[in-house]
Design goal:
Chain lengths: 330, 287
């Protein structure tokens, strides 16, 4: 096979991974369709793009480095509150610099906690991520003079994007903005994952004890990817704050972290498109079902999770990949 | 005359014992069998709803409903264990987390469907509602009973797991499954029984918790965090560790809310994180 030829060397293997495939181009072109076909759903589309970015950031640590986090919403919340407070308390509503500030703040928190994260495994790790998430949520709740507490942060005003595009009621600007940021960060993640560093991360996921034994600086790798993912989650949070012009305590909640893990696994963890597909399916399904019976929506999510864990260990994308592989063999 | 701080300590201790009753079952399933069972509080909720239904609709006496709550949760656990959990004993942390979160989501929705999202009030008999004056303090009878039950369960569990044949089988099956099978221990049945025991205790805890913390469908998530903290801080598989952790947690939570209310639950999470960083395996953990 021609593919095997290029895989002989490590460089060839990485290059073959990073080649753009037709279906990817179709996927990204399809993300433009809502502008034409579903102009009434653009604000939902913008929320989906933001959630997809958030899921992508979790995929980097959970899917690739194998760090199970139940508190990833902490970074989303830090980003959202940074951008929100900048606008509501200091009157600075410029979107792009808001994003950068949010990325810095969330990345800083991520970097500080990454030293602890890199040292632990199993239940202690899960409990620590959960604990940090709860700690930050509690902090935001008690610092209501800054965050608005339970009432949420009011009075955010986002300036025109690049000084030109007004954030309209229909969400044209919001969706274009979120989608552009998602696409840029997706390309960045794609390069990161298909680099030697990305391979080292997968090595950590597969065997965390062996990687240091063969000379990889595992803890440094974990710290790097954890900080990167935190900054990305912060950007996603800032996007939500800027496009909806409100931040609530909900952005830091355990529910958000748990839902995020759910959608990532649904789509397929450890695949770049897993978080994206999971976010699309999850958000569209919630939009459709939760309108009629919000409390029963969780039943279907729960059932779906059980089914995925028992029957589709690699998520929907993993199941599809298996199907197409079987198809090709015939 | 005792100073009011003793009253706070008493309330904290009673609350801690409540947390212990809720989490001791998890100390068995997660701690001994090493299964990350985030659906633990869903079984507790089941026990709670069984008790509420029996007392409010059929007029059963409160204490008579407790064994039923235990059995109902244990029975449900056996069914789930045989159908689902059993497949994942050797799976990754993530898969176990996902499966049990999924079950918890479903239980919340089912509870909301059957019992609505409203709080379920429970009418306790008169002899449980009063309080005993003791050197200037009023000690609520129900809280005293909670402490007594928690102590009794601790003694029974520690003795049962250390000194009975069943306990020996459980420990053997957990420590080395293949060896245990080789010695003729029915590991599958032992695991199912252990799981039933752990979840039954959850059901009992859930039934006893209604009077103090109320009962609504969100119970399965709200107390999950506390229960996980108790078990992970206490040390996996250590009943005594859970007991100590629950007591410390209960007292510090109540004292924190009483003396520094603006901090809320902040203190507890901070204590948990520092303890886990100091000893990742928990205070009394063996590993």
């Amino acid at each position: 096979m021609a593919l095997a030829e290029s895989m002989r060397t490590p460089q060839g293997y990485l290059q073959s991974l990073s080649r753009w495939r037709g279906i990817e181009i179709v996927f990204w072109l399809a993300t433009l369709l809502p502008f034409v076909l579903l102009p009434n759903y653009l604000s939902l589309a913008s929320q989906i793009a933001i959630t997809a970015l958030f899921a992508l950031s979790l995929d980097l640590i959970l899917g690739y480095a194998g760090i199970v986090s139940l508190g990833h919403a902490a970074f989303f919340g830090v980003g959202a509150y940074t951008a929100g407070i900048l606008s509501a308390r200091y009157g600075w509503g410029e979107p792009i610099s808001g994003l950068i500030a949010a990325a810095l703040a969330a990345g800083l928190v991520g970097y500080a906690t990454s030293f602890i994260i890199a040292r632990f495994r199993h239940l202690a790790l899960i409990m620590l991520t959960l604990g940090f998430g709860l700690l930050l949520a509690e902090l935001a709740n008690s610092a209501s003079w800054l965050t608005g507490g339970v009432d949420g942060l009011q009075g955010i005003h986002t300036w025109n994007l690049l000084g030109v595009f007004h954030f309209d009621l229909y969400g044209y600007t919001a969706y274009a903005y979120s989608l552009a940021v998602l696409f840029l960060l997706f390309i960045m993640s794609r390069r990161l994952i298909n680099s030697p560093f990305g391979l080292a991360l997968r090595g950590i996921r597969e065997n965390r004890v062996r990687m240091p034994a063969i000379g990889a600086a595992s803890r440094v790798h974990i710290r790097t990817i954890y900080t990167t993912a935190a900054a990305m989650a912060g950007i996603a949070g800032a996007l939500l704050a800027q496009t909806t012009e409100t931040v609530s305590l909900d952005s830091l909640s355990f529910d958000r972290s748990a839902e995020l893990v759910v959608m990532l696994v649904l789509g397929g963890a450890g695949r770049l498109y897993g978080g994206l597909v999971g976010a699309i399916i999850f958000m569209v399904a919630r939009d459709q079902f939760s309108g009629t019976t919000p409390q029963y929506w969780y039943f279907w999510i729960g059932a779906l999770l059980v089914i995925v864990v028992v029957f589709l260990p690699n998520g929907i994308l993993g199941g599809l990949a298996k199907l197409t592989a079987r198809w090709r063999r015939w | 005359m005792l100073p009011p701080v003793i009253g706070v300590l008493f309330d904290g201790l009673a609350y801690g014992m409540l947390l212990f009753l809720l989490s001791v079952g998890l100390s068995v399933t997660l701690g001994m069998m090493n299964f990350i069972n985030l659906a633990h509080c869903a079984f507790a909720m089941l026990g709670g709803y069984v008790t509420v239904t029996l007392v409010n609709r059929y007029g059963w006496p409160f204490f008579a409903t407790l064994p039923v709550a235990f059995l109902a949760a244990a029975l449900a656990a056996v069914v789930f264990e045989r159908i689902l959990y059993r497949r994942l004993y050797k799976a990754t942390d993530l898969d176990q987390v996902l499966l049990t979160i999924g079950i918890t989501f479903m239980s919340v929705a089912v509870a909301a469907y059957v019992f609505t999202t409203a709080q379920q009030p429970i009418q306790l008999p008169g002899y449980l509602r009063g309080s005993i004056p003791f050197m200037g303090l009023d000690l609520a009878i129900y809280r005293l009973i909670l402490i007594v039950i928690a102590l009794a369960i601790t003694v029974a569990l520690v003795a049962g797991l250390e000194y009975t044949r069943f306990g020996a089988r459980v420990r053997a099956a957990v420590d080395n499954e293949r060896m245990a099978r080789g010695l003729g221990i029915d590991v599958d049945r032992t695991f199912a029984a252990t799981f039933a025991l752990g979840s039954g205790l959850a059901g009992l805890g859930g039934a006893l918790a209604i009077e103090i913390v109320g009962l609504d469908p969100s119970f399965a998530f709200t107390y999950l965090v506390y229960v996980l903290i108790v078990v992970s801080v206490g040390g996996l598989g250590s009943i005594a560790g859970s007991f100590a952790a629950a007591a410390v947690l209960g007292v510090s939570d109540i004292a924190g809310k009483y003396y520094v209310p603006q901090l809320g639950a902040f203190l507890i999470y901070l204590v948990m994180i520092s303890l886990l960083m100091w000893r990742p395996a928990g205070l009394f953990g063996r590993r």
